[in-house]
Amino acid sequence: MEVAETVFPWLSCGVALFAVLALPLSLRKPNRLRDLQLTLNAEPNGYVVFGVLLGITALGSALLGVVLVGNGFAYAWGIFAIAAAQLVVIGQYIVIARLPFPTFHEDEDPETDEIAPK
């Protein structure tokens, strides 16, 4: 149990940090951002359901954390980091859905993101 008291909260913070950094770092290329926007546009109801389920899970995680900390499990504060990471993912999808679509050129090279000369 001592290992869980030490490792779990820091592991939870690592998961939260990964959630905050992973999506913006993966979207540095305009093609990746455009693909994600097209995916969000193609299945808008699916992502609304996904966001609602993530919100319910975040609320459940936070309530579980309150119950566990209230019962004396001090290491359970790591659950709050996981709940915060879920809320960050929801926020990132909302921001991406609200961004204007980048321009698209038929003759764009996907490797270099440059337009081929005609």
From TrEMBL:
Segments traversing the membrane: 6-27, 47-69, 75-96
Keyword field: Membrane, Transmembrane, Transmembrane helix
Source taxon at top rank: Bacteria
Listed name of the protein: Uncharacterized protein
